[in-house]
């Protein structure tokens, strides 16, 4: 990932990071144009939204749905799934 200095536009390096939340990280940055700029700054890197759900989410959702079903419905669903294989 490339971070550009917001003052001069030069490339910057990430010197450290601080996780504020699983969906928000603060990136501590330093401009590589030390001679003419030398700006140090903090940028936030944040999760925005999901485009395609994780397979882990689908499995968890499916397990939750199966556990909430009455035993008779669950057995019927599994029977139907066996027929499709």
Show the helix and strand layout.
Blueprint lengths: L2 E2 L6 E11 L2 E8 L8 E7 L8 H14 L2 H13 L2
Antiparallel strand pairs: 1-2, 2-3, 3-4
Can you walk me through this structure?
The radius of gyration is 24 Å and the shape is rod-shaped. It has two domains: 3-46; 50-85, no CATH class. Helix content is 32%, strand content 33%. It has 85 residues and is an alpha+beta fold. Strand 3 (24-31) and strand 4 form a beta hairpin. A four-stranded antiparallel sheet has the order 1-2-3-4, with no helix packed on it. It is built from two helices and four strands. The mean pLDDT is 92.
List keywords for this structure.
single chain; alpha+beta; 2 domains; 4-stranded antiparallel β-sheet
Quick summary:
The protein is α+β, with helices and mostly antiparallel strands. It has helices at residues 55-68, 71-83; strands spanning 3-4, 11-21, 24-31, 40-46.
- Strand proportion: 25-35%
Looking across the biggest beta sheet, what order are the strands in?
1-2-3-4
In N-to-C order, the SSE pattern is: EEEEHH
Taking all Cα atoms into account, the compactness measure Rg is 24 Å
Strands, total number = 4
Give a short account of the largest sheet.
4 strands, antiparallel
Mean pLDDT: 92
Shape: rod-shaped
When the domains are counted, the total is 2
Question: Structural class, from helix and strand content?
Answer: alpha+beta
Number of helical runs? 2
Distance between the termini: 44 Å
Q: What low-confidence regions span 5 or more consecutive residues with pLDDT below 50? A: none
Helix content: 25-40%
